[in-house]
Amino acid sequence: MSEQALAEIAFCEAVLAKGGLNVLSETFQGVSSIEAWDHYPPGDVFDPASNSQWFYHCHPAAEGSAEHGHFHCFLRPQGANGPIHHLVAIGVDANGRLLRLFTVNQWVVGDDWADAETLIGLASRFDMQMPRPSYLVNRWLTAVFAAYEPQIVDLLRERDRVLAAAGGGVSEDRSLEVLSEFIVPAQPATPNPAG
Fold it and tell me: Coil, strand or helix: which one is 98?
């Protein structure tokens, strides 16, 4: 893990915490009610300089689950109207704390299929430098990619191994949803400098 990227994650969280905010409250700013499966912010976030894209959504609450929802992160190597490739999902709790990174089967997000080695090259280009919905949320997501780059590489390769064992390539098997997962070690809560 990159110490500099981990420091960037902590910095973004600490600045948000000064205002009583976190990556989720910033993602939901201006939203009056949060609905399962809806994309937040509406219309997704796309950076035309890097061709990175993301949206957040949650599933219906599952009993005993700490995860509130997850950021689905993509890259569009040919621009906004070109193919879209899912890189990784970033699961967080209700306070926006990082819980896990995971990959999903192609049917889950309906992206354009690419093998792990292609995606590994694209993942290194994920860089969100956009003001909306929050520059700090975008910096935080970019830092997660940098901090956990080795784990993301492993997740993408494991995704392909799971699919190969199931018959190879894209699978429409609805029982194959999450294909690889990395549980992020618990981090100390971000102190609130105001409190």
Answer: strand
Give the H/E segment covering residue 67.
strand 67-75
* pLDDT attached to residue 170: 66
Q: What amino acid is encoded at 57 in this protein? A: H
Boundaries of every domain in the chain: 3-182
The proportion of the chain whose per-residue pLDDT surpasses 90, expressed as a percent, equals: 78
CA-closest candidate to residue 15, choices 29, 1, 26: 26
Evaluate whether 101 touches 90 at the Cβ level (below 8 Å).
yes
The pair of three-digit structure tokens given for residue 23, joined into one six-digit string:
């990556």
Show the tokens assigned to 30. 């201006």
pLDDT tens digit sequence for 137-154: 999 999 999 999 999 999
Q: Is the dihedral of CA 133, 139, 142, 144 positive or negative?
A: negative
* pTM over the 0.85 mark: yes
Take residue 11 and report the two structure tokens written for it: 């910095």
Place of tokens 């201006």: 30
Q: Given phi > 0 = left and psi -120 to 50 = alpha, else beta, which region is 137?
A: alpha
Q: Which two tokens stand for residue 108?
A: 């889950």
